[in-house]
Amino acid sequence: MTNIIPNLTAALPLLALVILVGVAIDLIGSKLLARIARKHGWKIAEASITSLKGLPSLLAFALAVALFAQRLGLEERTLATVIGVVKAATIVIVTAKIARLAGSLIRLFTKREDTVISSSTIFVNLGRVTVWLLGSLIVLATLDISITPLLTALGVAGLAVGLALQPTLENLFSGVQVLMSRQVEIGDFVRLETGEEGWIQDVTWRNTTIRTVSNDLVIAPNAAIGRSLVVNFTSDDEEHGLVVPLGVSYDSDLAHVERVVHEVATWVQREVEDAVTGHNPSVRFTAFSDIRIDLIAVLRINHYENRFKVRHEFLKRIHTRFAEEGIDIPYLRQTPLSDTGIAENGSRLQ
Predict the structure, then answer these.
(1) FRET label pair with 159: which of 176, 187, 213, 263, CA 20 to 30 Å apart?
(2) pLDDT bracket for residue 347 (50, 70, 90)
(3) Which residues, including other chains, have CB under 8 Å from residue 245's CB and lie 6 or more apart?
(4) Do 119 and 68 belong to one domain?
(5) How would you list the strands of the sheet with 217-221, edge to edge?
(6) For a pLDDT cut of 90, what percent of the chain falls above it?
C-alpha cells in the first residue's frame, strides 16, 4: 500500500495520454472520416461514423479506469471484480453504439427503392432489441453468470407472458406481415374500412399512424389494419379517375349540355395543375331523378389526394358556363309556413 502514491504519480501521464488519444480520435478522426464519406457519397460509411461517434472516448475512459485500478494495489480478488465490472460496462457501451448503428443501417437500407421491406420504426426497433439481447448475454457471460437457468426460466414463463401480451404480439406480427407484403408502405395514401383516409406515417410495435388531409393523426392497431379492408391509392400508376356528379333540368337540350360539360372538363384537364394533361374526359347521363336529369363528368387526376383542387376548379367553371349558356341547375325550394298553414307569399299549400 505504501507504493500506491508513487505508482499513481507515475501512471497519471499514461492515463491522461490514453484519454486524450480517445478524445482526439473522436473529435478529429470522426469529423475527417465523416467529411470524406459525405464527399464520396458513402451513405453506409457516413451512417456508421455518426452512430459510433463518442465510442473512442468512452473506450479510452474505460481503459483508463482499468489501468487506474491496477495501480491501486488492490487485492487480487477485488481487482478481478473491478476489472470484470469495467469489462461489463465496456460491453454495454459497445452494445449501445452497435444498436444505434443497426438502427441507422436498417433505416438506410429500407429507404432504398429496390429493398424488399418498407421503412418503418418497427424494423429499426427489432434490430436494436436483437443487438441488446445479444449484448446482455455477453455481459452475463463476462460476469460468470450462467445463462442456462435464465433461459430455462424464460422458457417456463414464456407461455404466461405470451398469453398476457397476446394483443401486443398480434399487433407486432400484423405490422411486420403488412410491411413485408409491401401492399402498404410508409407514405402511401390509404382509406380504412371505417372511412378515415390519409398518408401512412409510421408503423410501430402496436399502431399504424395515419396523417389525414386535415392534418389530424389517426392511430389504428396493426391487427385492425391486417384484418380490415384497406384501399391503397398509391401505386406504380398513381393516376385516378375523378367522377363529378351533376344535374340539369328536364327542359335542357342534352346534346348542348353534353358539349358544354365536355368543353369545361377538357379545359380543366389542360389548365389545372393536378389534372392529367392530354386526357380526354367523358360525359355520361345516368338517370332521371325527381327534379333533374343526372349526369357525371369523368376526369383524370395525377394523385388521388389532389382531387379536391381539380373538383373545385371544375365546379367553378361549370357554374359559370351553365349561367352563360342558360342551362338551369334545378334545386329544391323550401317555402316557410305561418301558424295557419299559409305560405309567406300568401298562397295556401294543398
Answers:
(1) 176
(2) very low
(3) 286, 294, 295, 296
(4) yes
(5) 217-221, 207-212, 197-203, 189-191, 231-232
(6) 18
Q: Any idea which residue has 401512412 for its cell?
A: 200
Q: Does residue 24 carry a pLDDT above 70?
A: yes
Q: What is the pLDDT of residues 174-215, one digit of tens each?
A: 777 777 777 777 888 888 888 888 888 888 777 888 888 888
Q: What's the mean pLDDT in 269-284?
A: 90
> In total, how many domains does the chain have?
3
- Cα torsion angle, 139, 141, 143, 146, sign: positive
Give residue 113's pLDDT. 53
Residues 130 and 21 grouped into a single domain: yes
Distance CA(185)–CA(197), nearest Å, equals: 14
Same structural domain for residues 208 and 251? no
Are 93 and 58 a contacting pair, CB within 8 Å?
yes
* Domain co-membership, 72 together with 201: no
* Cα distance between residue 115 and residue 106, in whole Å: 11
Burial of 194 (0-12, 13-18, 19+ CB in 10 A): exposed
Q: Which of 232, 317, 307, 235 is nearest to 268 (CA)?
A: 317
**Coarse DSSP helix, strand, coil percentages of the chain, rounded to the nearest 5 percent:** 55, 15, 30
Which residue has 421491406 as its cell numbers?
Answer: 117
How far apart CA 257 and CA 23 sit, in angstroms, is 79
Contact by Cβ (8 Å): 49, 40: no
Task: Answer with the one of 168, 198, 232 that is the final residue of a domain.
Answer: 232
Q: How far apart are CA 180 and CA 4, in angstroms?
A: 61
Residue 16's domain comprises 4-145
Query: What pLDDT does residue 14 have?
Result: 66
CB 104 within 8 A of CB 51: yes
Angle between helices 43-51 and 30-40 (to 10 degrees): 160
Of 232, 259, 274, which one is at a domain's C-terminal end? 232
